[in-house]
Design brief:
The relative contact order is 0.19. The longest helix is centred in the C-terminal third of the chain and has 36 residues. The chain contains four helices and no strands. It starts with a helix and ends with a helix.
């Protein structure tokens, strides 16, 4: 995948996730994102991105992928429960769950790319 496409996709995920969360928060007074599970999703996705396989699949990469799937499933379930407790409609529940699913992925990619640019830019210049 071209790097510019990845950058645009990551920023769009972040922007769209924040937009969906903001729409939900305006309607129900409480954000859709479950922030503790967001942090767990962010860590797991970031771990998977840092362990991307080269020629062969590593056990660390598989661990992070499985952890990402489990954390995403738990976050979506908790997000759905939270929306139900607020008596959110089906459409609003879907909006909440979409925000919970895409925001950590976009944020992990953006932060890792920014850290890489800073680290490699600094190392390259010195």
């Amino acid at each position: 995948m071209d790097g510019s496409i990845l950058i645009v996709a990551a920023f769009l995920c972040c922007a769209f996730g924040f937009l969906l969360n903001s729409m939900y928060a305006k309607k129900y007074g409480d954000p859709a994102i479950q922030w503790k599970l967001f942090a767990l999703q962010f860590i797991c996705v970031g771990g998977a991105l840092m362990q991307l396989p080269g020629d062969e699949m590593s056990l660390r990469f598989l661990f992070w992928i499985i952890a990402s799937v489990i954390s995403c499933a738990a976050a979506l379930w908790m997000c759905r429960q939270h929306a139900k407790s607020q008596h959110a409609g089906l459409g609003d529940t879907v909006v909440a769950m979409a925000a919970q699913a895409i925001l950590p992925v976009g944020a992990a990619v953006v932060i890792l790319m920014a850290a890489g640019m800073i680290a490699f830019g600094f190392l390259w210049n010195h």
